[in-house]
Structures are given as C-alpha cells and as structure tokens.
Amino acid sequence: MSVEQRQGARKILRTRAMLVMDGAGPVAARTLDVGPGGMSAVVTEPVPAGKEGKVLFELFLEGKAQIIEARTAVSHCIFSSAGFKVGLTFLHLDMAVMSAISKFMR
Fold first, then answer.
1. According to the CATH classification, is domain 11-105 in 2.40.50.840?
2. What is the pLDDT of residues 10-21, one digit of tens each?
C-alpha cells in the first residue's frame, strides 16, 4: 500500500492546462486537483520525475476566469488508464498565485 506524500489539502479541479517543461515544447494536460503546494494532472506522454518547468491553468474566482502560471517540478509520473498522472510541486509561487489558490481552496 502506498503512503500519501502530499502535504496540505487538495481540492478537485478539472480543467485544461498547459505543461511547459524546460527545454521542451508545450504539452496539453487535464488537471485533477490543486492545493497550495502543488497539483496533479493527466498528460498523454510520460514526463521524467525531477524535471522542472511551468504549468498554466484556469481558475474561476468570484465568477471570473483567472489564468494561473506557476513554476513546477515533477514529483512523480505514473501510467493510468487515462494517460500519465503527473504530480507537480509548485516552486517559488508569487503572492498573486498563492492568493488565488488560497481563495479557490475555501
């Protein structure tokens, strides 16, 4: 049985996203959940653990869509029936992004 490695609460977030790893082109993704420390998403091709890049996704706050862009590192990537599940850890979030995610979590 696996041990939960996430730190902090997560909230379901099903939306389109774009994953842009350093040195690679953009890859379409679907988010699964988000929290203050990171998020998980599904992509069609595997992404190596430890790879850094950025993720862009949309959050709806107070009736408006807000585009979030955050630096991330891949914590894990596993094969699933829907594609490859990627665990992303946020790196150095700016205050605006932290605030938006905190509001979404409420």
1. no
2. 899 999 999 999
